[in-house]
Structures are given as C-alpha cells and as structure tokens.
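Risk register update: the risk of archive-format incompatibility is retired. Evidence:
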Amino acid sequence: MSISAVLLDWGHTLFDTPGSVDFIAGFASQQGCVINRDEIYSLWNDARVRSRSADEIAKGRDKSASLHRQCWTSLWAQLEQRCPGVSEVLYEFETSAAGWSPYVDTAAVLTSLSVRRIPVVIISDVAFDLRPILRHYNLDHLVHTYVLSGEHGTIKPELHLFRVALDAVGVTAEHALMVGDNHVNDGAAIDAGIRTVLLPPVSHGAPRGLSVILDLIDAGV
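Archived output:
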C-alpha cells in the first residue's frame, strides 16, 4: 500500500544535540569545576542512554513541563555533583534552538516530502514547544502538524498519540509510515497498525539515513 503521510519522531531522528558536551565543558570551566571532557561525555551520554529505558519513559516525564524538568535534572544528578548548577543551565540549553540542530539530511528529506505532497507530522514525546526550534532553522513550513505529548497528556507507547497524528492528516494507519529511533516509544506504532522504520544511532555530523523514507515512498510499498 502506498504511503500517504509520514509521522516523524523529532529528537535524535530529525534533530541532534551535538553541542551539549561543549556547553557543559564551557560552563564547568567558568565555574572552576574540575572535570575533563571525556568524563563529561561519559556522564552526559550515560544519562541519555538511561533516559531511553522503559523505566524512565514510564515515569511520564513528557506529559508535563514540570515533570520533564524534574526527570531530566535527576538524570543529570552525577553531572550536578561534579559541577553544581550545571543541570539547570543544561536543561535550558537542551530545550532551546541553541541546544538542537537538524541532521545534515533533515532539510533535504523534509523538502522532498513537501515536493511529493506527502504531509509530515512530527509526533514527539516532548514537554516543550518544538515550533520555535523548527522556525529558527526555517523548517517549520515543511511540517503539516505537530503532535506533542505535552500538549495531549499522553506519550507514544500509549497508542492515542499515534491516532491523533493519523487524524490530523486524515490518513489511515496502513497508508502511514512512522520513522523514529527508539524501539519502546516509536516502535509502539506497529501496535497501531503503522509501518515503522527505526534508525540506528549515527555519529554527530553524519547523515541520519532519512533518505530511506523517500526510497520507500518511491518504491510504492
């Protein structure tokens, strides 16, 4: 069956946080914290990996702004111990356009989808507004609808958010494609009857592999 709409996760699917370690290192230097860059990366990346676990997702952090802040600052507790104050400034950084940038193939694929008149829904477990970030990078006009967990009080492992996304573009599940990076929340789309592609991690600065979306559409699968 042909693909009539694409549902896209946002964080680490369309956008990356390549500057976080440098940001932490800069703050640590200003504050006189004794911590080297390798240790910063290790602690930051450990928090990122733990954030993707089923136990962390089950806390429902993406359902409200206050819980989101609380969960993330808790995940960064070890960084906070090494450099007091870093968790709050890092939170502000990672919830703004300063802390996120599109992967090198994001704009091209979103543009190609627009040319093909395939509506894009960003469906994201996030408790802050993504629209200013997309607007900052002049990509907002390529997005049909934003379906954000913090605005609907439900997260992706719960199937309601997928149904909201499908209704937003008037497409049935069998004619949609979900693309994400997390088997727990993005992978739940299969239980809503949506074909799903999960992308493996890539290095900062590398293409995300989003061209697979165009390949599938052009193949008419």
